[in-house]
Write a structure and sequence with these properties.
The protein has 174 residues and is mainly alpha-helical. Helix content is 63%, strand content 0%. The chain has 9 helices and no strands. Helix 1 crosses helix 3 and helix 4 runs parallel beside helix 6. The radius of gyration is 22 Å and the shape is elongated.
């Protein structure tokens, strides 16, 4: 007869600190994401003892240097830009990660300065425009433009890249 799993013990302040430390040692994160994680764990397991605020625990981890929102924003923005995502999509990802406005603006700046580079990287990775094997039909072309716009690129730039003939180097004037 299979044994039923024991219910998890309710958390206390020390257990919440241990969870936070375990999380920051495994993942690059922000104060906001860490606080959300800790709130979810408290909701799932319950609480025992004097109340503790997950946001306070996240702030303490940041004060100790275990969480750095600015470094996280720089790292995430650079990674997304290398993959070909535009500044708008990078800003969206940083908002979702609870990065503060000041840190996000500073991290997005390099990607926003070179929109053509990011758009071409995205097109190269997805084999759109000059990197396509054959010219797409109208329906596929519109889907490719839509994919580039969802990736954070300007519609006019996306259309110029997708309309470029396959095998011919892209001549960008930006």
């Amino acid at each position: 007869m299979p044994r039923e799993p024991r219910p998890a013990r309710p958390l206390d302040a020390a257990a919440l600190d241990r969870l936070a430390l375990r999380y920051v040692e495994r993942f690059a994160t922000t104060r906001g994401k860490l606080a959300d994680y800790l709130r979810r764990k408290v909701r799932e397991r319950g609480w025992h003892g004097a109340p503790a605020d997950p946001a306070t625990v996240a702030e303490r981890m940041a004060a100790l240097g275990y969480v750095d929102d600015r470094a996280f924003a720089d790292m995430r923005a650079a990674a997304l830009a290398r993959r070909g995502f535009g500044a708008r999509r990078v800003a969206q990802a940083l908002r979702a990660a609870h990065v503060g406005e000041e840190d996000a603006v500073a991290a997005i700046e390099p990607a926003a300065e070179r929109p053509l580079d990011a758009a071409l990287a995205f097109a190269r990775r997805r084999r759109f425009g000059p990197w396509a094997k054959a010219a797409p039909d109208e329906r596929l072309r519109e889907r490719q433009v839509a994919a580039m716009v969802r990736a954070g690129h300007a519609p006019a730039l996306a259309r110029r890249i997708v309309l470029s003939p396959p095998g011919v180097p892209f001549e960008g004037d930006e």
